[in-house]
Amino acid sequence: MSVTTVERGPAAEPAAAFSAPSYLTEENTVASWLLTRDHKRIALLFFASITFFFFIGGFAATLMRLNLATPGGLLQPAVYNRMFTMHGIIMVWFFLIPSIPTTFGNFFVPLMIGARDLAFPRVNLGSWYVFNLSGLVVLYSLVMGGADTGWTFYTPLSTSYADGYVFAAAMAVFINGFSSIMTSLNFIVTIHRLRAPGMTWMRLPLFVWGIYAVSVVMLTATPVLAMDTFLLAVERFLGVGLFDPNHGGDPLLWQHMFWFYSHPAVYIMILPAMGVVSEIIPCYARRPVFGYAGMTMALMAIAILSFFVWAHHMFVAGISIYSGVAFSLMTFFVAVPSAIKVFNWTVSLHKGSITFDAPMLYALGFVLLFTLGGVTGLMLATLGIDVDVHGTYFVVAHFHYIMVGATVSAFFGALHYWWPKMTGRMYPETWARFAAILTYVGFNLTFFPQFILGYLGMPRRSYTYPPEWQSWNLLSSAGASILAIAYILPLLYLGWSLFRGRKASANPWRATGLEWATRSPPPAHNFERTPVVTLEPYCYDPERDTYVTQEGVPHAG
Amino acid sequence: MPASAPPLRPEIQFATLEQQGDAAQLGMWAFLVNETLFFGALIFTYYIYRIAYPHEFAVAAKDAVLWCGSVNLVILLTSSLTMVLAINAGAQGGRHAMIGWLIATAALGCVFLLIKGYEYYQDFQDKVVPVVNFVAKPGAGSAGELFWVFYWIATGLHAIHLTVGIGLVLYMLLWRIKRGEITPAYYAPLEVVGIYWSFVDAVWLFLYPCIYLVGRS
C-alpha cells in the first residue's frame, strides 16, 4: 500500500453555482434524510438519537435523585438498582461516548480539513443504523424490566445471580461497539487521506487532533469490550463457565478486560471535549492557543497512556500489591499531559481580549470542572486513599466531574459555538449565558456534596442511607433539579432560534478555521471551491483585534 | 459505488481514483487493527486459562482432530497464494487469469469450511461439544470444558470471518468484475478483499498451534 502523506484535496468543483442550496434545503423528503450520505445530515441524525437517549438516561437519574432525597427512599430497592444500571449504560454508551464524535466530529472534521465528505459515507450512515439498532435492544432491555448489575456487568453477579435482562443489555453494548468502530475508522482514514492542500498535520485544528486521538482509542479498545461482552453473553446464555470459578473460570478476568476498554472509554469521552475547548478558548480570547505542539502531543499521550492504567479500578478487587503500585504510578503519569493541557488553556487567556459569550462560559466551566475531576482522580489513584473511598460517592462525584461536568459542558459549548454554522441561525446570547452559568452552578450543587458524602463513607449504588446524611443528599437532589433546568433550557431557546433566530453570517465569531470559510449553513458538498491552507490555526491578534484565516486571508477588526 | 459506465470516476469526496484506492486500503488496514485486538483478546484469554490449567488443557486438547486442522492450514495458506495471484493478474490486465484464481480462492475457502464441518461432526461424536453433548475426559476436569468452549468460539468466529471472505470474493466475481469495474487502472477493491483474506488466513496461523499443537508432543 502506498504510504504517501502528501495531502491531496478534492479537485476543483465543476463550477457550482454560488446560490447552490444548503445541505438543509437541498432535498427534504424522508428518504433523502434516512438514506443520506452527507456527513452533515448524518451528524444531525446522530444528534437526534443521542439527545433522545440523553433524556432517557436523565429520567433515570431524576428518579434516583428523587429516591435519595429522603433516607427511606421512594423506589423499591430492585427498581432503584435497575435505574442506576440503565442510567449508567445509557449515559455511557448511548450518550457520552458517541456524543461529540458522532455529532460535531461528523459535521466538522471534513469541514475543518477542507474535505467534501468523510472517506466512507455509506459506512457513516451504517454507523447510525447500527447505533439505533443497539438503542432498540437497550430500550427492549429497559422496557422488559431492565438489568440490575450496574453498568460494569461484574461477574459472577451478571452471569449467575442477576435476574434482569442482562443478556439483552450486554448485547446492546456489543452492537453499539460496532457503531463506534465504524465511525472511528472513518475519521482515521479521512484525516489521513482527505486533508485539503496545505493542511499539514501541524496545521490541523486541535479539535481534529482530538477526534483523531479518540478514534485511535475507539478503534483499539472497543474490540476488546466486544470480545468481553461476547464471552459474557455466551456464559449467560449457554451456561458455560468462562468467568465462573465453579467451572475453572476467573471472575477477575472480566474486570481486567472490561476496564481495558472502559478506562480508555473515559478518555474517549474527554478527548473530543478537550478538542472543542481548544477551539473555543483561542476564538473568544482572540489569541493563538499557547503551545500548539504540546497540545497535540498531550492529546496523543493521553490516548496512549489510557491503555496502561485500567487496573486502578481494581485496587481492592484482589489484584497483587505489585500490580497495584505499577498501575497507580501509570495513573499518575496521565496527570502530566492533562496538566499540560490545563496550563496551556490557562496561559492562552493571558493578555487575551476575552469575551464571555456562552461558548466561552461553557469552555471555562469545562476547564474548572475537569481540573477538579482530575485532581480527585489523583487522590483515587493513591493506593491508600483508594482503599478508603473505593465504591463510595467520592468515586461517583469524581467521574461525574469528568464525564458530565467536563464533557457535557464541552458538548453544550460546541453546540452553541457551531450552532450558527449548523443551522444558519444565531442563538439568543443572554439566554445561552444564563444556561451556561446555571449548568455550572447546578452541576457543582449536585456533585460537590457527593465528594463529602463519599468521604463520610456513603456507598454508591445504595437506595438508602442513615438519616444524618440527608442534608448533603437533599442538597445534591436540589442541585440536580437546577441542572435539569439548565439542560432543558437550551432545547427551548435553540428550538426557538431555528425559526426566529437572526440569520447567521458565514463567520459570526471571526474565527480562523476552514469551517467558517464556507456559507452558513454549508452547501451539500461543503465548499464552492477547494480551500488551500497556508497557515496554522488560531492566528488571532488580541491587540490589533485582527485575525488571519487558515487560508491566509487577513481580516481587520 | 462508482458508476458502471467506463471510464470510472472517483466518488465525490475523492480527487482521483488513486486517492480513493489509497483510502480504501487504509480503511481495511485500520479495520484489521481492530480485528487483531478482537481475536487478540480471545487468544489472550485462552492463554490465561491455558497457563492456569496446563495439564487439564493438554488432556482436553488431545481430542482435537489434528489432521483436519493441519490440512486446513495448508488449504488456507494456498488460498492466500491464489488470492495474491488473482490481484497480480488483475493489476496486469489478465482478466481470465484473475477470474480463474479468484474462483480457486473461493473454492479453497469452501473446502476449508467443508473439512471444518466434518471436524465439527467428529467433535460431536467425541462428545466435546459443551452444553450440547459433552463428557469430561478423565484428567481434564472442569477446565477441560473451558478448552472446548474456546475451541468452539474461536473456530466459529474464524469460520464466520472466512464465510464473509468468500462472500466478498463472490461479490468481486459476480458484480464488480462482471461490470468491468476492476481494471489495471483501478483494482483497489480487489486488493482490499485480498488484505482481508490474508488476515483471515493469519488468524488460523495463530489458532492452529493454540488448538492443535501446544502440549501435544
Key words describing this protein structure:
heterodimer; A: 557 residues; mainly alpha; Cytochrome C Oxidase, Chain A; three-stranded antiparallel beta sheet; 15 helices; 3 strands; 1% strand; globular; B: 217 residues; Four Helix Bundle (Hemerythrin (Met), subunit A); two-stranded antiparallel sheet; 75% helix; elongated; disordered N terminus
CATH fold-level assignment of chain B: Four Helix Bundle (Hemerythrin (Met), subunit A)
- Mean pLDDT of chain B comes to 93
CATH class of chain B reads Mainly Alpha
> Largest sheet of chain B, order of strands side by side?
1-2
The assigned CATH architecture of chain B is Up-down Bundle
CATH topology of chain A: Cytochrome C Oxidase, Chain A
Mean pLDDT of chain A: 93
Number of strands of chain A: 3
CATH architecture of chain A: Up-down Bundle
The description of the largest β-sheet of chain A is: 3 strands, antiparallel
**Outline of chain B:** elongated
Unreliable spans of chain B: 1-5
CATH superfamily of chain B: Cytochrome c oxidase, subunit III, four-helix bundle
Structural class determined from secondary elements of chain A: mainly alpha
Q: In angstroms, what is the radius of gyration of chain B?
A: 20 Å
Question: How would you summarize the topology of this molecule?
Answer:
The complex is a heterodimer of chains A (557) and B (217).
Chain A: H1 30-34, H2 39-68, H3 77-113, H4 121-144, H5 157-161, H6 166-193, H7 206-238, H8 251-285, H9 292-305, H10 321-349, H11 358-381, H12 383-389, H13 393-423, H14 429-456, H15 470-500, E1 539-541, E2 546-548, E3 554-555
Antiparallel strand pairs in A: 1-2, 2-3
Chain B: H1 17-52, H2 54-61, H3 66-91, H4 95-125, E1 128-129, E2 133-134, H5 141-176, H6 188-213
